[in-house]
Amino acid sequence: MFYNLKNIYQLKAAEVRFKNLCEQGKQIELKEIKQKRTLDQNALFHAWIKVFAECIGELSIEDCKRDVKRTLLGVKQVTNYFTGEIMFEDYKTSAMDTKQMAEFMDKFKIWANAEYGCYLPYFNDAGYEEMINNYK
């Protein structure tokens, strides 16, 4: 169950639910829901991928995006529910929260510049507007 604790009704409902679970001696997991990456972060990341792909001569934007994520983040181990087989899966930026996405983009920006001499500007950095106009 999800509760928005800024909403008085939902706050009270969460308190009642928590009290009930305590009385029953249940085991629970309390987890804060973090805000997913923003649309602005996503749009900037995709612009950067286009810039970077052009910089390195990669024709496929999707291949470039996959390879950047694998290089900087690696892959994660997952287990197939039905077979029990251990497999590897790419990280998805859509599953990242704003902090994780910001950290990933910082790594990408530094790596692209250091390893390939590719400049990836943030909002308000020199060249940002030109990049956005050229790579929307």
Structural key phrases:
single chain, 136 residues, mainly alpha, NinB fold, 2 domains, two-stranded antiparallel sheet, 2 strands, flat
Can you tell me about this structure?
There is one protein chain. This protein has 136 residues and is mainly alpha-helical. The chain has 2 domains: 1-33, no CATH class; 39-135, NinB fold. 54% of the residues lie in helices and 7% in strands. The chain is built from 5 helices and 2 strands. A two-stranded antiparallel sheet has the order 1-2.
The helix tally amounts to 5
Overall form: flat
As for the number of domains, it is 2
CATH architecture of the largest domain: Orthogonal Bundle
Helix content: 40-55%
Number-wise, the strands total: 2
Mean pLDDT: 93
What value does the Rg take, in angstroms?
A: 21 Å
Specify the structural class. mainly alpha
Distance between the termini: 38 Å
What is the string of SSEs from the N terminus onward?
HHHEEHH
Low-confidence stretches: none
Major sheet attributes: 2 strands, antiparallel
Q: What's the assembly state of these chains?
A: single chain
- Give the CATH class of the largest domain: Mainly Alpha
Largest sheet strand order = 1-2
CATH homology group of the largest domain: NinB
CATH topology of the largest domain: NinB fold
Task: Tell me the fraction of residues in β-strands, as a range.
Answer: 5-15%
